[in-house]
Amino acid sequence: MKNHTKQVFLSLLLSFFSFSISYAQTQNLAQVQEDSTINVIAYFCKNDTMDYRMESVKQKIQGNDTTLRHYIKEDFRLIVRDSTSNGYKLEYSSLGNYEMEGDEVDVVSKAAFEKLAELSSRQHVIFTIDELGNLQHIENWRDIKKTMQDGIQILCDSLYANNPMLDSVMPRNRFETSLNLQYSTEQSLWNAYEELQLLFGIHGKAFTIGRHETKDDSGYPSVTNLVVSYGSYDDEDQIEGDYYIAAKTTQTIPAEDVVTLVKGQLSGLLSDEAVKTMQEVDLKNQLEDAQSTLLEAYFLFFNGWPCDMTKQNVMKMNGAEHITTKHIEWLSRHWQLVDSNETEQEKI
Q: Three-state SS for 91?
């Protein structure tokens, strides 16, 4: 990747659990009562404003070869527009500063992505959260649905124009219909704004301070190591009461289930002839068990505003690592605190 800071960040995240975490001003866990908890709650005020930068990175590593599937960067703003009977109404809007590169961008065309970015910049999202910070409703979801449909049209026009043979393998009408169905309801439209899920996904939950390991055998057996404490990711930006939650979850997906998942996802998109060919291929003997590792790191300000949030999935299969990373960091803040003292700070 061109951006060296992202390489450094990925390295730090991947090694997160290989050393003892030691953030400045972090409370000594040995001094904390075993039953102490941190509640992730939104203490927002009208006109509170936060600017963020989101980066999405998808990579494939095989041996010494690293392929950048995509790198996308965009800045956005959240403003608390009002309070509701049980929470807050917020507005999401793009601030631009859009960058993109990688194989997936090349397949579609950069011009198409620029059109999609422009379309997105004109669409503001009005959504509500409850008193804890849980995402509730997208008030203008029908308008957003129309914007998504327009975006899908742009995407498909470019994709099939740049790849004339694609239609014989994956008919456009099937692909386009599948995409439109993914964003057909208010609930499904949350998937179009993964950044909001990353920012508010743990709100409303309580975490016991300390280091913990939990095992789950209800599905694919998994092990989660969790670290919870007060502290900040940065000495200069920290405020008393800031806190973080970090976790590493590992699980194994058997090869036969990987085959089922792959075939299930593709069968509704491919042409009848391509589906027949896929069914004839013995994928079970060509695929290995998949090793999945999910790394999460959530840093929050004392009042529940997200500070720096990351989710990274590392999937190891057939000698290759497929790494997907979502990272959001704050750029600036303007708060009207409960005691009416304003706080405004630009991040350097």
A: strand
What per-residue string of b and e applies to 268-298 under the rule 16 or more CB within 10 Å gives b?
ebbeeebeeeeeeeeeeeebeebebbbbbbb
The whole-angstrom distance between residue 285's C-alpha and the CA centroid of its chain comes to 33
Predicted pLDDT of residue 139:
96
Average pLDDT over residues 92-116: 83
- Asked if residues 328 and 72 have their Cβ atoms less than 8 Å apart, the reply is no
Q: Where are the alpha helices (DSSP H) in 56-95?
A: none
Distance between CA atoms of 199 and 300, rounded to whole angstroms?
9
The DSSP code sequence of 99-129 is EEESHHHHHH-HHHHHHHHHHHHT--EEEEE
The closest of 211, 205, 277, 214 to 249, measured between CA atoms, is 214
Q: What is the rounded distance in angstroms from the CA atom of residue 246 to the CA atom of residue 249?
A: 10
Mean pLDDT for 202-230 is: 91
Distance CA 187, CA 144 (A): 12
